[in-house]
Amino acid sequence: MMSPKIRLAFIVPGGRFNECYYWDSYFACLGLLELGRLDLVRDILYNFIFQVKHYGKIPNANRSYYLCRSQPPFLSDLAVRTFKSIDNKEEAAAVLRAGILAAIKEYFTVWMSEPRYDPTTGLSRFKPPGKGIPLEVEEGHFDAVLYSYAEKYACTIPEFIDQYNFGNVNEPELDEYFMHDRGVRESGHDTSYRFDQGCADLATVDLNCLLYKYESDIAWAIKNVFNDKLPIPAEWRTPGMTDDHVEVSASWLQRASQRQESVNKYLWGPERGMYFDYNTKTQKRTTYEYSTTQIRMRRRSQHQYREVARPSQHASPAAEAMGFSIRMGAASDACLGRAEEIWPFA
Question: Where are the alpha helices (DSSP H) in the chain?
Fold first, then answer.
C-alpha cells in the first residue's frame, strides 16, 4: 500500500546539495525516528520505493543526471526500522511489504547485476555504468585532469568537455578515470585516499556488509511478518522471476551465508586483523585502513571479533577509539564526526 499523498516530503543536506540524497536521507531518518517524526520518515521511505519502482534504483540523488548511479544501500534497514515504529500492525506490515519488495528489486537489478556484481568473487562493487563528465561538479573541478586533453585537441577545456561528452573523441584512459570517479561518488565516501587504486574495481567491505544486511533483513521480514512466503507482484519482478514467483526466507539466509563466506575469504586480512577492500582486477586485498573495517557481520569468528576490536597500531591517538586512522586532505578520511563513518549495525 502506497501513501495516498501526491507530494511526499524529503530532507536535503543543505547548501548547494538541495536534493534528496540516498544515504544522507537514511541517516537523517535515524534522527527523525528519535524525534518522533514518523510522518517524514515514511514520506522519505515512499520516495525511495517510488524511485526503485520507476527507475530501477534509488539514484545518488533525485535528479535525472544521477540515474546511472546510486549510493550505499540502506533501504531494507529503513523499511524495518519504520515497520517497528508503527503501532498499527496492519499498517506496519503494509509499509514493510512495500519496502521489502523494493529492496528485493534494488538488490537484484542494481547490486547483483554487472557491472557492479563480480561473478568471480560473488561480491559487489561501486561500479555504476555511464560515460562522460559528472554534471554536478562546480565549474573548473576537473580542469587539472582535462588540460592536457584540451591541448591535444587544440581547443579550450569547455570545448573539449562538449566533444568528450558527446562521444566525438575516444580517450580510453579518461573513460577509466571517470569510471572510477563515478564509483567514488556512488560509494558516498568522496573523497578518500582509500580509493586511489581505483574504486570501481574494489569489492568493498562496507557495500558487501550492507548487502549482507539486506539478505538478513529480507529473510527476517519474510519469515516473521509474511509467514515465510512473499509473492512478488508483476511490477516488482526482476528478470528470471515467473508469474507465480514467491520468495522464502531460506533462500535469503543462503545468500547471506554465501556472502559471509566470500567476505571472510577475500576481505579478511589475518596478518593485520582487519577487513580490507578487495581489488577484483589485481586479485589482491588493499592495505588502506578505514572506518568500514568496523562494520559488523553477525557471523564473524570469535578470533575475527577480537582482532577487529583491537585498536590499530597504525591509527592516530585521536582516531584509535573510533577504530580508524586519518590522512589529511580528503574529506571522508578526516571527518571523525561524519555520520556515514559511524554505522549503527550491531
Answer: 22-34, 38-55, 75-85, 89-106, 143-152, 157-165, 172-187, 205-224, 249-266, 302-309, 317-320, 331-334
Global pTM reads: 0.87
> Which residue in 228, 249, 248, 221 sits closest to 98, CA to CA?
221
- Ranges of beta strands (E only) in 222-299 are 230-231, 246-247, 268-269, 274-275, 278-279, 284-285
| Beta-carbon count within 10 A of 195 CB | 26
80 Cβ contact list (under 8 Å, min separation 6): 96, 99, 217, 220, 221
Query: Helix, strand or coil for residue 273?
Result: coil
Collect all residues with Cβ–Cβ distance below 8 Å to 103 and sequence separation of at least 6: 52, 73, 75, 76, 79, 214, 217, 218
Short-list 178, 193, 152, CA closest to 334: 193
Cα(281)–Cα(62) distance, integer angstroms? 31
Cβ atoms of 79 and 96 within 8 Å: the answer is yes
Q: What are the pLDDT digits (tens) for 188-232?
A: 987 777 887 799 999 999 999 999 999 999 999 999 999 999 999
Mind giving me the DSSP string for 80-101? HHHHHH-S-HHHHHHHHHHHHH
Nearest to 82 by CA among 47, 112, 52: 47
- Among residues 8, 92, 117, 103, the alpha carbon closest in space to that of 49 is found at 103
Question: What letters, b where the CB count within 10 A reaches 16 and e where it falls short, cover 63-75?
Answer: eeebbebbbbbbb
Q: What region, left, alpha or beta, does residue 15 occupy, with left being phi > 0 and alpha being psi -120 to 50 degrees? A: left
310 is written with which cell numbers? 583491537
**Is the confidence at residue 308, as pLDDT, over 80?**
no
Q: What is the rounded distance in angstroms from the CA atom of residue 296 to the CA atom of residue 211? A: 12
Q: Locate cell 547485476: which residue? A: 113
